Amino acid sequence: MFTDKTKFQIIGRDKNCRARAGILTVPNGNVETPVFCPVGTSGTVKGIMPAQLKETGCTLILANTYHLMLRPGAETIEKLGGLHKFMAWDSPILTDSGGYQVFSLSPLTKITDKGVQFASHIDGSKIMLTPALAIEIQNKLGADIIMCLDQCPSFPCEHKLLQKAVKRTIRWAEQSREFHKNINQMLFAIVQGGIEPDLRKECASELVKLDFDGYAIGGLGLGEGHDNMIKTLSLTSELLPQDKPRYLMGVGTPADIIAAVREGVDIFDCVLPTRNGRNAFAFTENGPIRLRNSIHTTDNGPIEQECDCYCCKNFSRASIRHFFNASEMLGPILVSLHNLRFYQRLMENIRLHIKNGDFNEWTHQKNNYLKFYNSTSGSVKND
Prior knowledge:
By secondary structure, the chain is α/β, with parallel strands linked by helices. It is built from 16 helices and 17 strands.
């Protein structure tokens, strides 16, 4: 399904683990991997202008099919020139299928082999999301990378229900591939199976036979814990093609990212940088900073001395604390910008050390730093 406008090239590996650096080429630009993409659920990364997002080093954004299909609607976005023009973002975009949001946001869902019937969280209207409709919507939106509809079970999940979800995910992936019409969009299948090795193997094996452009790993970060997540990633990654990109969906603490890169994952998304930023929680190399705390009342220093973001170059911790306490919108914007830049600096360092061949050694030097963020491990899908 690859065209001359879509390709994935591996340009560096670490000999002591599965980490690899690559370049993903899509019609709207090149993406260096491993890459972290901020979440723009409804077509915007909350509080951040596209030009500001570019300044953080962002090259790939995630937008959400579920939310965009409900409003303003895929047809509206298509008439307005597609998602890139709608978002004023001329770099690559990834859209998910909407499956996770259907299961998590709608209290009443009816799942059959045909698809999922759910009630809109906006007005309660009944909608039937099928593999064909999920693909049709994403074709109209025009993102560079799109996802097959899958069934994402909760955790924990009974074996029989998990097994049924895997069978359904495989069947829906076959249908998604059949209905996909835009050859300039990369189509990824999603591997499910919880933390059960046999089901992960079954799902991965069947999806690989269908030869997708890339493979996402779903159903993690739902409460299984960091160790179970990494064990499952290690198993699943080994089953996927070496020459195709791998995407870990919705998982994004620094500790999780570094451990997943070690297992060969290329793409990440998570709302943590912006959601935490809106709550005065800043990521730093020396651990988290909570900027509402009174210790920052007269602190004239930046959030992080070594950071080159707009926030750290222009504002003090004291001023940011004041903005939050005064309910000024600038506070959440500034900390979100810092956190987004923190994540992009992390990915830049990851790519550099993979290319230098010392990534595995570098990660061991980061152990103390990673401990700061293990406690926040978990998947958050919407922002």
